[in-house]
Design brief:
The structure holds two protein chains of two kinds.
Chain A: H1 2-7, E1 13-17, H2 20-28, E2 32-35, H3 46-55, H4 64-79, E3 82-89, H5 90-93, E4 101-104, H6 116-128, H7 135-144, E5 148-151, E6 170-176, E7 182-186, H8 202-226, E8 229-230, H9 231-240, H10 250-266, H11 271-283, H12 289-300, E9 312-318, E10 321-326, E11 334-337, E12 342-345, E13 358-359, H13 363-367, H14 388-398, E14 402-411, E15 417-423, H15 425-431, E16 437-442, E17 450-456, H16 460-478
Parallel strand pairs in A: 1-2, 4-5
Antiparallel strand pairs in A: 3-6, 3-8, 6-7, 9-10, 9-13, 10-11, 12-17, 14-15, 16-17
Chain B: E1 2-8, H1 15-26, E2 31-38, H2 41-52, H3 55-58, E3 65-71, H4 76-88, H5 103-109, E4 115-118, H6 122-134, E5 138-141, H7 148-161, E6 165-166, E7 172-175, E8 178-181, E9 188-195, H8 198-210, E10 215-220, H9 233-244, E11 250-255, H10 260-273, E12 277-281, E13 295-297, H11 301-311, H12 325-335, E14 340-345, H13 348-360, E15 365-367, E16 386-390, H14 394-397, H15 408-416, E17 424-431, H16 440-454, E18 458-465, H17 474-483, E19 486-489, H18 492-505, H19 508-512, H20 521-533
Parallel strand pairs in B: 4-5, 5-6, 9-10, 9-11, 11-12, 12-13, 14-16, 14-17, 15-16, 17-18, 18-19
Antiparallel strand pairs in B: 1-3, 2-3, 7-8
Chain lengths: 479, 534
């Protein structure tokens, strides 16, 4: 009982939840006050709040089996060491790939419900593969069920925007050397009218053919001469140079060019073609995006399926739904309608043109870079409010929903604090803070392409659903 | 509709800035379409496709800025002014200092936090309070709409851990001299208060200050603490803490009348501290107020303050001002036998005290503060007889600020209740301090002026709960009331006594005095008279 009497001998330090005028008064009186930027847990959902309270004690500590599982999950994520091992071909390298299989971004979605960009990209890819004569023919084929549609994530692969991957496309092979697992992604096509934004005209397909015919072999040979490219080191350097690894990849792309250029020049590729390859890389600030995505996928895959862990092992969108996977719940997706992106538009476009949020690139945020490292990339804050302080705040906020800080990904503006890594489902639901995601915006009509970029808020709903399912699973386990 | 394409040579701007600028421009009135971009070949094509093809556009290069506008109702010059402003100065977005987003995060950030003040909606407040207690922090829970079951659970947890659980529905506390929520600025001193009555604590602590005394701690408990269900858990913790506190020499315990068993427990706990103590159960019948050992029972809030000051060793400075009986007689005569009382209170406890004193004087007063009986009314009811309303009643404050914060609520009633012009005696409380309206006297003066315009036969009586150190200043609020023709009494008790004295002098008293039970009006009036003479 002496605790109350002890209080009288201490300087008062108050935490204020609610009316800010109370905090103002105390501050005026010289009292130390901390105001909480409070929001209801689980968005006020009673069932989820009860589920949360069954997993986390009032002292804020998760049940011991959860804490232990999360410790293991974050150990694996922190220990990941992704390297670019080589350039392969989807059919030969991606597990389970077939010539009649089309991979797309996000959680599973039938053709009927697919967004415009995804449909456009699939149509383009079927023509590119020679499976259809025209885009219209391709649409009929896709609808008929004669080709199978499956998420990239189900095949150790990630794809930006529509994320369409078919058999003959060249792919980046990224290995997590700490665990031996591989992850794949296609090579980035550049900006504007491109397949990943649902564009499928001849220029798009012609570029894809050139990439397959010329770019991939040249890069593959250069990479072989150079040896595996340490992607963790590249990302770490890029964060020091103003990239965040999702919506800004200018520094990392430059670093890749710097590493490979001598080997390109020394290789067997004709000088004119080397020039074309280098110019292509130089013109595409986002070349590294697919590398950082595959690195993130390779790093996160070993965290999936650890019983009792509440780590978010994957997040992805297909333009129709936003989905996520929780480590302890294995391969199950928890989905909610894909939100719209709050962003800026290229000249001549507006919000009316935009498709809902799309792409696997949110794997970078899941890994602790991208929006989570926005403080490292002040140049892109124009997209998200306009002030460098906003970028710092976005990153600082993410520490409230993550389990650890990355040992290698340091953010200069935060005094080289590690980037917030490992999203904890419990913390997201408890704080009501959803991951911050930087992203591009696709035109809603197939065939047009990128129309802007901005910031998107994943729907809290799928985190809440996942938590309720997780709590039910834990309870079953205890019985 | 006006379409215009302007080119500014060699004026490079970052493309993202321009995207943002275009978007902001399109939000301005009269701007139908606006594209501000560098004249790259791609952008030139885009603009041409959108109907902005002009010779100037065709000759522009990547380092030239293109401004393409479609306007309806504004001029190009105006649009350019906006563009220049946006290009030049960045809009100052409100970037608040980053704040922790949860209780857990905040405690991790600042482990020295020792008290958590919660004023969230009731449905979420209990959960956060439980978390604060589980992490060994004292709690003040301002929120209401917390169930009794939850209150008992929280207070039991706090009791086990020796923590203070002030509330739910705790509006006032002063801890280590710092005001929490609604509290007056009072001198620090030797008197420790535990109160289940918010404005009760405010009236007592203000009176102590004005008498020259000081307060060590004022611990609020929430109004239900002394109910049988809660069993005074926080009051007991508070009493023990103040008993152990070397800076507290005298205890004051104030509450509405508790359950008999609970009262006995509380008095026993006070006795066990061995410190001189004053207990005041607002409106409790006299037989429950037997002095025992170190415990003195007070009969009013102001009385409790006075006794506490005396017990703390404070010598009386001069005379306590009372009301003039000549004045009471004159007011009674002026109002005549048809006089009706309308009491409009912002404070629940000040209202309850006034009601108890009036009832004790044999005056039948309808009130929403009566729990039951023939005089109990809903807050919205209109009655012909004497009326005293607690305007802080949930029924009246649902979805709007408490009248202590927004006293306009009282003015609405003041005018609304006086529609039939009839000689009326008005009784008010004015509560100052942190959290309260910056100028309640000014608001009341406005309301009175409006009421007087409709009904000149008004006499207004009021008291002010507060100190000269309060942001509103006791003296200047009093002055403002005096200027508005209000009879300002030294404290809430005296104001109620004065009103009782007036009503006892009118024939209205005889009509209204029927429901009285034990207390006969005459002795009460005499008592009032005696107090007034002192």
């Amino acid at each position: 009982m002496t605790r109350a009497a002890e209080l009288f001998g201490q300087p008062l330090a108050v935490l204020n939840l609610g009316l800010t005028s109370f905090a103002d008064t105390l501050r005026q009186c010289g009292t130390r006050v901390v105001q909480v930027d409070w929001r209801p847990a689980a968005g006020g959902d009673r069932e989820a709040m009860a589920a949360l309270d069954a997993l986390v004690g009032a002292d804020g500590k998760a049940r011991p089996e959860i804490a232990n599982a999360n410790q293991e999950a974050i150990r694996r994520l922190g220990a990941a060491k992704p390297v670019l091992e080589g350039i392969g071909v989807a059919l030969e390298d991606i597990p389970g790939m077939r010539s009649d299989l089309v991979l797309h971004s996000g959680p599973p979605v039938p053709w009927e419900l697919m967004s415009g960009p995804t449909r456009g990209a699939i149509m383009g890819a079927l023509v590119y593969e020679g499976l259809a004569k025209s885009p219209e023919d391709a649409a009929r084929l896709a609808q008929s069920g004669a080709v199978e549609l499956a998420p990239c994530h189900h095949h150790q692969t990630v794809g930006p925007m529509a994320g369409v991957v078919t058999a003959s496309m060249p792919v980046l092979k990224v290995r997590n050397v700490a665990f031996g697992n591989l992850a794949f992604a296609t090579l980035n096509e550049g900006l504007g009218k491109v397949l990943r934004y649902g564009a499928y005209d001849d220029t798009v397909l012609e570029r894809l053919r050139w990439m397959q015919r010329s770019l991939a072999p040249a890069l593959g040979a250069a990479l072989q001469a150079h040896g595996p490219l340490d992607l963790q080191a590249l990302i770490a350097q890029a964060l020091q140079m103003g990239d965040e690894g999702h919506n800004r990849n200018r520094a990392a792309t430059s670093l890749v060019i710097r590493a490979l250029a001598p080997h390109l020049v020394e290789g067997k590729t004709a000088p004119a073609e080397v020039g074309r390859v280098l110019r292509f890389l130089d013109a595409n600030d986002h070349f590294f995006l697919n590398l950082s995505m595959a690195a993130a996928k390779a790093a996160l895959d070993p965290t999936l399926g650890i019983p009792h862990s509440t780590l978010i092992s994957a997040m992805a969108r297909n333009g129709t739904e936003f989905g996520l996977r929780v480590s302890g719940l294995g391969e199950r997706w928890f989905c909610a309608p894909a939100p719209m992106v709050d962003g800026l538009y290229l000249p001549g476009f507006s919000a009316a043109d935009a498709a809902p949020d799309i792409g696997d690139s949110v794997i970078t945020e899941t890994y602790g870079i991208g929006g989570f490292a926005m403080a490292a990339a002040p140049a892109i804050v124009q997209f998200v409010g306009g002030r460098a302080a906003d970028a710092l705040r976005y990153t600082e906020r993410m520490y409230a929903i993550t389990m650890a800080e990355h040992a290698a990904y340091k953010i200069p503006a935060l005094d080289f604090r590690g980037s917030p890594m490992g999203i904890d489902l419990l913390k997201v639901v408890d704080t009501g803070i959803v991951p911050v995601v930087n992203t591009g915006i696709a035109h809603k009509t197939p065939g047009i392409g990128m129309v802007g970029a901005g910031l998107v808020k994943p729907p809290l709903q799928c985190f809440v659903q996942a938590l309720v399912a997780f709590a039910a699973e834990e309870q079953r386990g205890r019985r | 509709m006006l379409t215009e394409v302007l080119v500014r040579k060699d004026s490079y701007h970052d493309s993202v800035l321009l995207m943002r600028l275009s978007r902001e421009l399109e939000t301005k009135a009269g701007v139908v379409e606006a594209v501000v971009a560098m004249a790259t070949p791609h952008n030139r094509d885009l603009l041409a496709a959108r109907g902005f093809a002009r010779p100037t556009l065709a000759s522009a290069g990547p380092n030239d800025l293109v401004i393409a506008l479609r306007l309806d109702g504004t001029t190009v010059a105006e649009a350019e002014t906006v563009i220049d402003a946006l290009l030049e100065g960045r809009p100052a977005a409100a970037t608040a200092e980053s704040q922790p987003v949860s209780l857990g995060a905040a405690l991790a950030l600042c482990p020295e936090i020792n008290l958590v003040l919660i004023s969230l909606p009731g449905e979420h407040a209990g959960r956060e309070a439980r978390r604060a207690l589980a992490q060994d922090r004292h709690v003040m829970l301002f929120s209401d709409n917390v169930s009794v079951e939850e209150e008992v659970a929280l207070k039991t947890l706090a009791h086990e851990r020796g923590l203070l659980m002030m509330g739910p529905d705790c509006g006032t506390a002063i801890i280590n001299g710092k005001p929490l929520a609604f509290a007056n600025v009072v001198r620090r001193g030797k008197i420790g208060i535990v109160g289940a009555a918010g404005t009760g604590i405010q009236e007592i602590s203000s009176c102590i200050h004005r008498l020259g005394g000081g307060v060590s701690q004022a611990i609020g408990t929430g109004g239900r603490d002394l109910s049988a269900a809660v069993g005074a858990l926080t009051t007991l913790t508070g009493i023990q803490a103040l008993g152990a506190d070397p800076d507290t020499a005298v205890l004051v315990v104030v509450s509405k009348p508790p359950a008999a068993k609970v009262a006995a427990k509380v008095v026993a706990a006070v006795r066990a501290t061995g410190k001189p103590a004053v207990v005041h159960f607002v409106g409790a019948p006299p037989h429950t107020r037997q002095r025992s050992q170190n415990v003195v029972f007070a009969t009013s809030l102001a009385g409790a303050a006075k006794t506490a000051c005396r017990l703390s060793g404070l010598r009386r400075r001069g005379r306590t001002p009372g009301f003039g009986h000549v004045l009471a007689t004159r007011v009674a005569r002026a109002l005549g036998s048809e006089a009706r009382l309308v009491g409009l209170f912002c404070g629940g406890t000040t209202g309850a005290e006034a009601l108890a004193l009036l009832t004790g004087a044999g005056i039948a007063v309808h009130s929403n503060l009566h729990k039951d009986g023939p005089l109990a009314i809903g807050a919205g009811a209109h009655v012909d007889g004497h009326l005293l309303l607690d305007l802080g009643d949930d029924e009246l404050t649902r979805g709007r600020p408490h009248p202590m914060i927004e006293p306009e609520l009282r003015n609405d009633r003041l005018v609304g209740d006086l529609e039939a012009p009839r000689p009326t005696l008005l009784l008010f409380d004015l509560v100052l301090g942190y959290g309260a309206h910056p100028d309640p006297a000014g608001v009341l003066a406005r309301g009175l002026a409006a009421a007087r315009a409709r009904n000149p036969a008004l006499v207004a009586v009021a008291s002010v709960t507060g100190t000269d150190e309060d942001p509103q200043s006791f003296t200047s609020q009093r002055r403002r009331l005096l200027e508005a023709g209000v009879l300002v009494m030294p404290d809430n008790r005296t104001a109620a006594d004065f009103v009782a004295a007036v009503l006892c002098r009118t024939t209205a008293r005889r009509k209204a005095s029927r429901p009285r039970k034990k207390a006969s009006p005459a002795p009460a009036t005499r008592a009032a008279r005696q107090r007034g003479r002192r």
